[in-house]
Amino acid sequence: MQEVIMVDRVTKIYPNGVRANIDVSMRACSGEVICIMGPNGAGKTTLIRQIIGILKPTRGVIRVFGVDPVKNQDYIKKKIAYMPQLPLTYPAHKVIEVSKYVAELSNTPFERVREILEILDLWSSRDKLGYQLSIGQRKLLLLALALIKSGDLLVLDEPTTFLDIFKKRLTWSALLEEKRRGRTMIIVSHDIEEARRLCDKVYVMVSGRIAGKIESLSNINRGVEVKVYYDKPSEIAHLFKRGSVKILSELLVADYTHLLDALEDLENLAVNGVNRDIRVYLEYPSVEYIVESLITSG
Prior knowledge:
Layout: E1 3-13, E2 19-29, E3 33-37, H1 44-51, E4 59-64, H2 73-79, E5 80-83, H3 95-106, H4 110-119, H5 135-148, E6 153-157, H6 165-180, E7 184-188, H7 192-198, E8 201-206, E9 209-214, E10 224-229, E11 244-248, E12 251-256, H8 259-271, E13 279-283, H9 287-297
Parallel strand pairs: 3-7, 3-8, 5-6, 6-7
Antiparallel strand pairs: 1-2, 1-4, 8-9, 10-12, 10-13, 11-12
Helix pairs in contact: 3-5, 4-5
């Protein structure tokens, strides 16, 4: 398969000294759906913005369709359809007007525009102005515009945030159809069910680093071990409420039954302002480890 995205040891440091990404590497091939998960402030959106060429890495290499996305913006804009995180819309324009405008730029036929708006339950609201839409409808409109644009790579930053379960299902249905069409996608998400339904592999980011990669989505339901390297692990042990915690010198090890519990505890690190000198890794226990644990406990 053709390599669509190559991120090699990328670090992004902002002018104020914040290290948003640290030595990040990932790959995506044609037709793959990749999910990036992690707590708030983990650096997910910063990574996405570098992939689409809005931000330039401080160090490292990014290639999208074989080119530097920063230096080849005209080409990249034609190849990528991007949905930002916040539901920003066009308050003084009708849904149908904005949709037609994007379609004309992308040479997308009107029949396809109508199909997308109907799938996302926006066709009945096509004559509403942007300011008349609910937050959920604004989010769906952003997704509709990304789908209308004829890009080979779809980049979605938290596409189902602000959506109720019914609108989430509309979104998942639309994205599954894109997956069947062979479209490559990167999805930033906090939703385990979303990852399970849509994605081929998941990268987990914590404190600017890739903490682990899940290549089989069946692993989402398996136990996971979190290793945290920190100079004073005893000071952060109380933040890991859902796991079984052990402290070894400058290493904290927490065992979890489910990945979701681990992600919720890792969210506590960001909420409590733990600094970025921390290093976090996720590991799935081997069969030997599971057997040994059963023997030891039994």
